[in-house]
Amino acid sequence: GSTGFGQAALESLAGNAGTQDVLDVVAATRAAIDTGAIDPERVGICGGSHGGFLAAHLSGQHPDLFKVASMRNPCINIASMVTATDIPDWCYVETLGIGQYEWDNFRAPSKEENDKMWDNSPIAHLENVKAPTLVALGMKDRRVPPSQGLEYFHSLRAKSLPTKLLVYEDCDHAIDRVVSEADFWINTKQWFDKHL
Predict the structure, then answer these.
(1) What values do phi and psi take at 133, rounded to 5?
(2) pLDDT reported for residue 131
(3) Does the annotation count 24 as an active-site position?
(4) First vs last Cα of the chain: how many Å apart?
(5) Exactly one of 21, 57, 173, 180 is catalytic; which is it?
(6) What is the pLDDT of residues 27-40, one digit of tens each?
(7) Where are the alpha helices (H) located in 35-168, listed in sequence order?
């Protein structure tokens, strides 16, 4: 799905989010480990937005590879996000494929579409997660509603996993106010130091 590999590669992610992108990251991670420069027992994952979606997926689908996670405004449950986001098209296209979203005629997903959205979501792999997880939320985010990260935080805490929630009341999707961004990165460094 990267723009660096051309339009066809970019469009290939549509309908395959949560699988193709996850396999790409796993392949890159294993290649880095194979160089001998990385300790395979000290691999963490960090990402925001779709990167947070990936971090959560990777924690659930490859729990023995990724030992710790940090995520900003992660998409966790596409089925519950689709009617609460300013990008419902992303929810449809990334899970159902190109041509599956009617730009001029929004409608709630059907039961079958909702099931596919759930299946393509990190929350579907929650039972496998082992990684201590840091979740950061911009409470003014309209792209990925804060309820997404809260759902993950509460679900991980219910599993008695080490988890920490950072809340930035005045931030939106980017969490890019100087103080907030610095706080996030300092907390991420401390979280990785503690759990790796």
Answers:
(1) -130, 130
(2) 98
(3) no
(4) 29
(5) 173
(6) 999 999 999 999 99
(7) 50-61, 78-81, 88-96, 111-119, 146-158
Q: Which residues contact 80 (CB under 8 A, 6 or more apart)?
A: 147, 148, 151
Name the 3-class secondary structure at 46: strand
Q: 49, 70, 121, 155: which is the annotated catalytic residue? A: 49
The per-residue pLDDT for range 77-135, each reduced to its tens digit, is 999 999 999 999 999 999 999 887 888 888 889 999 999 999 999 999 999 999 999 99
Cβ proximity of 84 and 145 under 8 Å: yes
pLDDT at residue 2 tops 60: no
Question: Which residue intervals of the chain are DSSP H helices?
Answer: 7-11, 20-34, 50-61, 78-81, 88-96, 111-119, 146-158, 178-195
Q: How far lies 139's CA from each of 48, 49, 177, in Å?
A: 14, 14, 13
Residue 2 is among the residues annotated as catalytic for this protein: no
Active site residue 49: yes
Which candidate in 125, 141, 155, 180 is catalytic?
Answer: 141
- Per the CB < 8 A criterion, the answer to whether 191 and 70 are in contact is yes
* Among 30, 109, 102, CA closest to 77: 109
